[in-house]
Design brief:
The longest helix has 26 residues, at 310-335. The protein is an all-alpha fold. Helix content is 63%, strand content 1%. It binds zinc ion (2 copies). Residues 283-325 form the MYND-type domain.
Length: 339
């Protein structure tokens, strides 16, 4: 009875119920055959592929698919099949920046090539913002968006509002609003919020304060529903959380690269590259960074906070900046007789 203990420890690693069920089923089949013949070996590839595709679609994290692939060599080969990778859930491709590696990049590339819109979106964001591969990043985002991926539509909207990856003249508020409207129609809350602010401000669309306010209320209500339903599902992350996973990745990525930079700063001053001048969106959980200097909008009161979007600015004002901005202004007034 050595096998059962080893296998059950593997089973515990998978957090997704579906993965655990598959592994348990395999364990039972193996144990049921006293001679150690793996009954799974007799299953046709098509069936195993269908099961693994189900695991990929329900995975609660990259570890679930990895756990299934670790089961045996045949599983490992079949788990890398496009029919499985194309079904990868948002959570299955939600990697952490601390675990970024060439193998991780390759995994996302294969999922994206197999047609996973979640992978196209996640890799698109990583390429565009973190790796600086603007063209391939934007192309991946466009592929996800054209497949109806709401977060990718919203991501493209933010690129249009800022002219990201290009110059100031590349800003296209109308295109941004159109993309936001599509994402909002698909139920994407940040897009709904952004659209509300655009209508209130008359940015990229005709000003309509009442409609803007209506959309903002709608966004707030949807956000409350999302928060309460996430609380009900204790432990398990929802598939939609993959939208936030790209932001989480970027936040972690910039924190890691800042730590690396400050460790390296003891050496020679590294040539004043303008990456140091590029600002992160001050709405901390957003994770977007400017692609050129002065790309993001600044807080008009203090000038020290910068935002990728109106929605990020409004959120940060509510959550943190209201207090900080006042304090900054007071400090400024106290520090100098301004004139
Ligand atoms: Zn401010
Ligand atoms: Zn932002």
């Amino acid at each position: 009875m050595r096998k059962p203990t080893r296998r059950s420890s593997l089973v515990k690693k998978g957090s997704g119920g579906r993965t655990t069920a598959v592994l348990l089923a395999k364990q039972e089949l193996v144990l049921g055959h006293g001679g150690g013949v793996d009954a799974f070996d007799r299953l046709p590839d098509d069936l195993v592929l269908a099961v693994l595709a189900g695991v990929a679609a329900c995975a609660a994290g990259p570890a679930d698919l990895a756990a299934a692939a670790l089961t045996c060599r045949r599983f490992r080969e079949l788990a890398a099949h496009p029919a499985v990778l194309s079904r990868a859930s948002a959570a299955a491709v939600s990697l952490r920046a601390g675990r970024w590696s060439e193998a991780a990049h390759q995994f996302l590339r294969r999922c994206a090539a197999a047609g996973s819109l979640h992978a196209c979106y996640f890799l698109g964001m990583v390429r565009f913002y973190c790796l600086g591969s603007r063209a391939t990043g934007a192309a991946l985002l466009a592929r996800a968006a054209s497949g109806g991926h709401a977060a990718a539509l919203y991501a493209l909207a933010v690129l249009q509002f800022n002219g990201s990856g290009g110059g100031k003249a590349d800003k296209d508020p109308r295109a941004g609003v159109a993309l936001c409207a599509r994402a909002a129609w698909l139920g994407h809350v940040p897009a709904l919020r952004e659209l509300g602010h655009c209508l209130q401000d008359g940015y990229g669309a005709r000003r309509d304060a009442a409609a803007g306010r209506h959309l903002l209320l709608h966004a707030a209500a949807r956000e409350l529903v999302a928060i309460s339903s996430a609380r009900c599902r204790r432990g398990g992350r929802r598939a939609e959380d993959g939208d936030d996973a790209a932001s989480r990745f970027m936040v972690e990525w910039w924190a890691l690269s800042a730590a690396k930079k400050s460790a390296a700063a003891t050496g020679e001053g590294d040539g004043g590259n303008d990456a140091a001048e590029l600002r992160l969106c001050s709405q901390a959980p957003c994770g977007r960074r400017e692609t050129r200097r002065h790309e993001f909008r600044r807080c008009s009161a203090c000038g020290s906070a910068s935002y990728c979007s109106r929605a990020c600015q409004a959120l940060d004002w509510k959550r943190a900046h209201r207090g900080q901005c006042g304090a900054a202004a007071a400090r400024w007034l106290a520090a100098g007789d301004a004139y």
